[in-house]
Amino acid sequence: MELTCCRLQIALPAGAPAQRQHWQRRATLALAGVELAPRGLPPQAILVVRRLADPAPGVLLQGTPWQAGRQWGAAARTQLEACWRQAARPIRGPVPPAAPAVWFADQAEWLACLSLDLAFGVAHARWWWLAWRSRLDNLGALWRAEARWLPAALALLAGADPLPTSAGPVPTPGVFTPDLPRLLAHLEPVALPAIAAALTSAFALPPLALDSIESEQLRLLIPQEAAARVGLLEPAEKWTPVQRLLAAALALAAQPTAVAQALRRPRFFVPPPASQPIHAARPQEPAPPPAIFNPPPTATTARTTSGEPPASRPPAPPVQANAAKRPRPPRRA
Questions:
Q1: Cα–Cα distance list, 4 to 131, 180, 182, 185, 293 (Å)
Q2: 291 pLDDT band (50/70/90 cuts)?
Q3: What's the CA gap between 179 and 176, in Å, rounded?
């Protein structure tokens, strides 16, 4: 269990500033090893307590720090268990003004409630969001930071059962329906590529994977009830970028393995329209054979490339048999 304390106020004994610093260090050492997880609280749950009074005044400053921390931790854990039994769950309905604590089943439920309160513009008025006040200004930045839980949060809001919202008044008492279209309308379009990249990184998908997958494949991976509730039954060609992001998130929440397998399938060739001719690739012509020297053909067999016989040449002069031979030059010794 992770403990987040927004403000801790400790009443120290009166004394000199140096002695007060000593008491402060001692209290810090005693609180370092305190285990505060209430018994019965699920390990993935998030419990937000509005105010916790000192369950054992003066114990942190008595005895050794580790003994003081153990005694004080047991008393604080008992008080936290009482707070959890009285805690409200925002996704089940409006939180009573006097509720001592609120709790969320997991990170996805926490993200769904915070996203709805941001869309309705009431997140700053909820005391249980003070621990995350740095994330209450931009819904796109919140979704990028919590991309690992975004598909489950959107699937929770788009589920078949009517889910409540902690934000704003409701038209009918006891009936709560999340306004998912208003939530998506609150999202800035310029933030969509960054959110898609964060989803790709969180689920270890190839780069630009959510842009390459076909819309019809996403539709087949989404439960029918959820698709009907969020308006994804219309033709995929008419989807807006926000609807495509929603479809990708719902597909990742329902069947993450199937989405990864669809991205690894080879993309088949899609023929162009009939108005565009398909040019088949021409086979390469074989290279001409290397030139080989042949003796000049005789007059009876010679032919030119055009098929006509070559032009006649004048015959060579006959060799005279009785012609005087030229004297050879003398050999040098």
A1: 8, 30, 31, 32, 93
A2: low
A3: 9
